[in-house]
Write a structure and sequence with these properties.
Elements: H1 3-12, H2 27-37, H3 74-82, H4 88-96, H5 115-126, H6 151-154, H7 160-166, H8 168-171, H9 191-202, H10 209-216, H11 220-230
Length: about 230
């Protein structure tokens, strides 16, 4: 069944047959990608143990920061406490750009730009899920069709003076001196990372409800202005 037809059925409210799990990608190619880009830090399958990164067995449907015995970064633990769960949508975003979901993550990985390669890697990871037959047919592993961030949004040049004017609501919770007292600092962020994070809240990819509400009120220009302002703070 074509993707267009599936979307039409979804809109009309008709029940569509499940999409074959294999349609995520090619797990054999994903295994090769895992060996080249992930295996140095992560193990998966029977007998897997935590290494530099946590084991990836049973990844789908698992809460971020949820592997017992592994010491996560504070940002990853916070995102898990906020409700971040690994689904095809969130994992795809994380593999593409880890900072899109978890600013300050310790994972030293620049990201995988090719969507087909990410799909292949997730198809491989899917084989080690607790219920691989349910991917991507059912939540929490259903793939959503939200578009990625438009490069034109990242190209907006923010006005730091306007950002300073807008920043009062941010600074009621986040400290402007760069310290972290339970709520992460947002000073000295690279502007692109700030913009990506805010749009992830705006699209409800990041799960924190207050941040979703705050980001949802902001225009693209306002987000760019805040990013420019906070990048200037020492």
């Amino acid at each position: 069944m074509s993707r267009a037809l599936l979307l039409a059925l979804a809109v009309s409210g008709l029940a569509a047959p499940p999409v074959a799990a294999e349609s995520i990608g090619d797990p054999a190619r994903g295994a090769s990608l895992f060996d080249r880009q992930c295996k140095a830090c992560h193990q998966i399958g029977a007998g897997a143990v935590n290494r530099v990164g946590p084991v990836l067995t049973g990844l789908f449907g698992r809460r971020a920061g949820g592997v017992a015995g592994f010491t996560y970064s504070k940002p990853m633990t916070r995102m898990g406490n906020d409700g971040l769960t690994w689904t095809l949508q969130t994992l795809d975003a994380y593999i593409e750009n880890p900072k899109a979901l978890v600013s300050g993550t310790r994972m030293n990985y620049r990201g995988m730009a090719d969507p087909a390669a990410r799909a292949d890697l997730m198809a491989f990871l899917r084989d080690y899920s607790d219920k691989p037959r349910d991917i991507p047919e059912a939540e929490p592993t259903a793939r959503k069709t939200e578009p990625g961030l438009d490069p034109a949004i990242l190209a907006i040049e923010g006005d730091p003076e306007y950002g300073a004017y807008l920043s009062s609501e941010c600074s009621t919770c986040h400290r402007t001196d760069g310290t972290d007292a339970g709520i992460p600092s947002i000073t000295r962020w690279p502007p692109e990372d700030f913009v990506v994070a805010m749009h992830a809240y705006k699209s409800r990819l990041r799960p924190h409800p207050v941040m979703q509400m705050m980001a949802g009120r902001l225009s693209n220009d306002e987000i760019a202005a805040l990013a420019a302002y906070f990048a200037t703070l020492e």
